[in-house]
Amino acid sequence: MTNILIIGCGLLGSSLLRRIHKKRLASKIFVYEKSKKNILKIKKLKLPATIIKKPEDAVAKSKLIIFCTPMNEYKKIILKMNQNFHSKHIITDIGSSKCKSLEVINKNLKKGIFWSSSHPIAGSEVSGPENGKQNIFEDKWCILIKGKRSNRTHLKFLKSFWRKMGSKTVEMSPDKHDKIFSITSHLPHLIAYNLVQSAQDFEKKQKYDLLKYSAGGLRDFSRIAASNEIMWRDIFFDNKTNVSKAINLFIKNLKSFKKDILSKNNSSILKKLTQTKKVRSKIIKLKQDINKPNFGRD
Amino acid sequence: MTNILIIGCGLLGSSLLRRIHKKRLASKIFVYEKSKKNILKIKKLKLPATIIKKPEDAVAKSKLIIFCTPMNEYKKIILKMNQNFHSKHIITDIGSSKCKSLEVINKNLKKGIFWSSSHPIAGSEVSGPENGKQNIFEDKWCILIKGKRSNRTHLKFLKSFWRKMGSKTVEMSPDKHDKIFSITSHLPHLIAYNLVQSAQDFEKKQKYDLLKYSAGGLRDFSRIAASNEIMWRDIFFDNKTNVSKAINLFIKNLKSFKKDILSKNNSSILKKLTQTKKVRSKIIKLKQDINKPNFGRD
Q1: Domain count, chain B
Q2: Is 0.90 exceeded by the ipTM?
């Protein structure tokens, strides 16, 4: 058995910690967490972590190192850890955007060291170690990134590791990854934030008490728009070219929608409203969502 | 005990039928449904309905008449029923948009007849009588509309009726109703349809298999975008002025979002991403959504 080092112990870092412990995959799980508040929570929850004060402290003793911090923190931490990194270290991260972060990693990671990036498609609108769950990765996809600094043997190890986390794995280039997730994840989050903001703007202007009537649709968006702001700022900034293209496509379609409404174009609007219906059943069939009306809420 | 006539027996019509029967609020519940497929379903489900062949057939025997059809069908049915309507009939509908439909009602409803409109904020992405539930209105708001043809005594009766359906009631003008729901319901649905369509456009162009990665956000939108197309066409067309204004506000905010991303405006984007977070907790506090991460799905 080997030791594992988790850097950043929020929702996903603490979920990894719980799962690794449950599956007995490590002799010791070292955790570096910069937030004192989170360290107190980890201790109070009695999570099975050996907390270290500096990220570089446990590198020599660890085989697998997993970055679970916001992406803007990678550089600073890498520079601190570089002196202790060895080519045998299996290093990965769980960031949601890849091209830009891998550029930063390439630039700052010591020569001869490998970095094989991961992206588990798991998360929630709540954050912090108290919300982590050992089964959060179960039946979810985990994308493994073939990049300039990735290593075939390490990717093979990570594939097996993520399967033990409960995930299905697939390999992708950073470019393909960032394009796909700009549409399936980054744009939906941005749109949700934007919708909630528009509702707030309207509420301020009209002085209407809107939120009590949010069960008609808005509430669904408010969930996603409650996601962690630091994480999402980093994603939007890092994947800005793809996200910006996605916004343009979205606005183009929205203008066409508006035109159909204002001109009461029956056949065009019915085409829009029926084509999209098929997507839900596909998503259910692919087991990407619960097969219950209203997400089984009511 | 009185007789009730339900016109249109889809998701909400059949939910009313179930609830009225369960609470023993009517001696007989007449149901007019134009779809033969739905009539077969109603019979197969053994729903407690007396099915009538023409909407006008049971008017004389009914005290309360509830329109549950798509809004574009009101006119045709009213013209058929006019000869049998009496000023004592309590007539309501459950349409999601009010100004335009009340205009049509005013224009076509026989003089001296009252119409006191309702809007229960309940629904689902699934439709049809097989998906109705007697508790679908429970703890939901029902908006009662004070309009040109509404009647104080009838509104009082309807207030009590909707409370028996499990709802909380509030009175509103048609204008205020249509403004509020353009933001809390109509825009969110339109945005969801538009997002799913944009994902489909992207998928076609890039030939990527997107939907299997929809758990990262898109899946939430696909639920709403699976809603009934006829109902939503009618809502968008009927409330087109408010919906169009809502689209404009949304695009304005989206362009500002894009600008912040492209210019990496840290303070401005963090302001956007934190302000919206508060909305979720307000919605939970107002009991408009389930208090579980991920809607309790995973």
Answers
A1: 2
A2: yes
